[in-house]
Amino acid sequence: MFWTRALIRRAARVRRRVTSERALGERAIAAYLGLAIGDALGATVEFLTPNEIRHQHGLHRDITGGGWLRLKAGQVTDDTGMSLALGAAILAHGGVEAKASAEAFDAWMRSKPVDIGNTVRRNLIAFRKTGNPEAVPSEHDAGNGAAMRVLPVALACYGQTPEKTLAASHAQAHTTHHNALSDGACDTLIFMVQDFLAGRDALDVENRRAAVLVGRHPVFAYGRKRCENPSGFIVETIQAVFQSFFATASFEDCLIDVVNRGGDADTTGAIAGMLAGARYGLQAIPERWLSALDDATSRQCEDQARELIALGGH
């Protein structure tokens, strides 16, 4: 009888672990698909003001392509492209390495992507000349280009110490953005994703992460005036994302709210989608968005999510 009860308890523990691991994997996939969906949804209205969006689209809520880049429906931009390039480098090297990240971004830039940020281009050209994967610290590098691609780091470092995670965050970020505000945003987003993967409550995460970021860098305060038409400045990006993310209660509502603010909408959409995917999971992502996303991109996101989360033994 003793051994029977022991075996039953052990089987129950195994089932709980398997269920937990399955839930973790699904949230990781949802975060990656959320990033790509937010990117594709927001790209249509990138650089438009909220009034222009209302005039041209009413309430923008479907993945239709177009926009200033004239994308096909479901096509993504540099936000997803750089994330996938970084994820591939992490998997190839078994972790986050600065030089491998810079080389991956450089190869991505040589592939002639549909879009590339000025700061990214400038610092990757410098990397080609010097071979140094760390950009020179600069007050001009406070853009959102490093923050938009942090998801592979969050997944690969899940379960690691905060110190190792922070080192990985800065290793990838400093290849193109060596700036304290950029670092603060990158670090915060990574830990937020990991908190949601672990099943933490949104209010808890807001207090543990967003409030701490604002405490360290008060310029990020997001409780004031509604941030509309956010630029590529990391502060405006985070303000718009946090306002939408913490004021809504579903994946769909979050993304619709943030992209209809206009401005750098592909990036605010990508970051909000990454967080919302990790928070709400796969079942919360509308089927019309999943089916509209480019098939090859969707497969890459799913495959990388599984492999990256497994990198840490999960």
Q: What does it look like?
A:
The structure is a single chain. With 314 residues, the protein is mainly α. It has a single domain (26-311), classed as ADP-ribosylglycohydrolase fold (Orthogonal Bundle), CATH 1.10.4080. Helix content is 65%, strand content 0%. It has helices spanning 2-43, 50-57, 78-93, 98-110, 118-130, 151-156, 162-173, 180-197, 202-216, 234-247, 251-259, 265-280, 287-292, 295-311. Helix 7 crosses helix 8. The model is unreliable at 10-19 (pLDDT under 50).
List the helices and strands and how they pair.
Layout: H1 2-43, H2 50-57, H3 78-93, H4 98-110, H5 118-130, H6 151-156, H7 162-173, H8 180-197, H9 202-216, H10 234-247, H11 251-259, H12 265-280, H13 287-292, H14 295-311
Helix pairs in contact: 1-12, 1-14, 3-4, 3-14, 4-5, 4-7, 7-8, 8-9, 8-12, 10-11, 10-12, 11-12
Enzyme class: hydrolase
Protein name: ADP-ribosyl-[dinitrogen reductase] hydrolase
Pfam family, one: ADP_ribosyl_GH
